[in-house]
Fold this sequence. Notes:
Layout: E1 8-11, E2 17-22, E3 30-33, E4 35-38, E5 43-44, E6 55-58, E7 60-61, E8 64-65, H1 68-83, E9 92-96, H2 102-115, E10 120-125, H3 126-133, E11 139-144, E12 149-155, E13 158-159, E14 165-167, H4 171-186, H5 192-197, H6 207-225, E15 249-253, E16 256-261, H7 263-268, H8 276-283, H9 297-308, H10 312-319, E17 322-325, H11 334-345, E18 353-354, H12 359-363, H13 365-376, H14 381-384, E19 385-387, H15 388-394, H16 396-402
Parallel strand pairs: 1-9, 9-10, 11-17, 17-18
Antiparallel strand pairs: 1-2, 2-3, 4-5, 4-6, 7-8, 10-19, 11-12, 12-13, 12-14, 15-16
Helix pairs in contact: 3-13, 4-6
Family: Belongs to the actin family.
InterPro entries: Actin, ATPase_NBD
Protein name: BA75_00989T0
Amino acid sequence: xxxGITSLILDGSNGTKTYAGLSTEEAPSLIISNDYKKLVDRIxxxxxxxxxxxxxxxxxxxGLIYNWEALEEQWKFIYEKHYKLESKEMPLILTENHWNxxxxxxxxxxxxxxxxxxxxxxxxxxxxxxxxxxxxATSLIIDLNDAFISVTPIVNGSIMTKGxxxxxFGGDFLNLHTLRYLQRKAGDGIDVEEQxxxxxxxxxxxxxxxxxxxxxxLKQFRRNIGSMSQYIxxxxxxxxxxxxxxxxxxxxxxxxxxxxxxxxxxCQMVEPLMQPFSYTNAFHPDISLSQENTYGLSELxxxxxxxxxxxxxxxxxxxxxxxxxxxxxxxxGLEQRLINDLVKILSNYTIETYSNVNLDERNLATWxxxxxxxxxxxxxxxxxxxxxxxxxxxGENAVLERxx
Length: 404
């Protein structure tokens, strides 16, 4: 195998969008949505909200692929429309989350080898890629995305599976609480979701299009307004201390005006990330959550470390290498709040966090890590790649053995 051959690297493990680039490129040349519009005769990934017609769907759930028809069309778009390349001519490298199922791995290989006939295929763990993409072989990767948050301890390049955990209390969960705030702000008799969905005069009656527009707005609104309290903030509180140094804000987007968003609201908008059970129980009693295993971010980190049952040296190495990444890692004050929470429990350890100040580079860490890992293993091909010939000879067993 000539490792001078260019590979296509696809990172869609965040669940929201896929970063596509060739191994000869310094960065992905295409960022494509993992949402798509289903029209009468085709699936479209371009300008999916440009018209009120056609339902909008997604390919991922909980950070895992579940819509194989749409994934096939996305790959076709990448190969044929963007790169104008034959899939038979180059290896394909895909990232996957550590909780991916064996069934998913087999189906992905089937798509790669049987439909696209790639000569060589690899699935790299996205959390390991992120670690290498930030220049670390040992780290505690905290991934904050819309569909999930995950905590993954990595030691000398290997995932410590006992401590690798995730839950679904990410950005989509925060949207629920952000919508509650906006509805309360608007008052009775005003349907906030309808107002958001019909912005720009491009009204629709399709539920999936409405949901797409509302979620997109809530995400953008929260990113501009949300700020993390440096201390535990109860669901019901009279006000914030002056220590928070926040001022009231106004928000304007596409003609939608929200005035006088006070500091307490700014913090409570994102506090459910740290206290999912308390906030849901207080404001959404109709949603049934069990307090057991309903961990906020800081609790998730502590639980991950507890499950490891390792040496103090390993604990210290992980706590000095906390990497915070993902689309919801940009919340002001989040990094310091996490440190504050951990120091209370782990006072005997040095705790250091890292998150790239360049937001674009932070989002590209996993793709960059996949590029690094694939080149590092170029002399050890059998470890991370499977060839079409192997797949045809050994089938599912080869997949399960290689990507275990």
